[in-house]
Amino acid sequence: MMMMMMARRLQSVLNSAARLIYCMRSADHITDALACLYWLRVPERINFKVAVLTYKVLHGSAPRYMGPLVPVANLPGRRTLRSGSTSRLILPSVRRSTVGDRVFSVAGPRVRNTLPEEITTSQSLLTFRRQLNTWLFRKSYSDIILC
To answer: Which of 117, 131, 124 lies closest to 85, judged by CA?
Structure first.
């Protein structure tokens, strides 16, 4: 509940900044302005940050305390399955859906597993960030004709 309220407040700040840039009234629709500025909405921004941090953890450039994330293919005693050739991560089970879903060890794999394979197999962080931003932007503003 608190996270949703904070996300709404952050989105309100982004909307106000876009209105200020484009000299819009508060009654004007903001979606076109956000799309023209190439700004992601707050939920997509959060997913972007979580996905980038997950990429860094998997490639060894994040702090060690972030912990190891386990790919599906690396499970001990696992037979070779079609899912073993993917780059999906294991989603640990959680007891409390309110708090447990926001833990990085759960949120990171959840966000990463929703990404297309061509993004998750990027060779560099810069390429990953570019492709991820473009994918999230298109997903967020799929119904808008861009500037």
So the answer is: 117
> Quick check: helix, strand or coil at residue 5?
helix
Please state, in angstroms and rounded to a whole number, the distance separating the CA atoms of residues 122 and 107.
Answer: 20
- Give the residue extent of every domain in the chain: 1-39, 41-140
Task: Look up tokens 């073993």; give the residue.
Answer: 84
Using DSSP's 3-state secondary structure scheme, residue 136 falls into helix
Return the amino acid letter for 3.
M
Q: What is the pLDDT of residues 81-118, one digit of tens each?
A: 554 556 788 877 777 666 667 788 888 899 999 999 99
- Residue 140 · residue 41 · CB < 8 Å: yes
pLDDT surpassing 60 at residue 76? no
- Sorted by sequence, the CB contacts under 8 Å of residue 81 that are 6+ apart come out as none
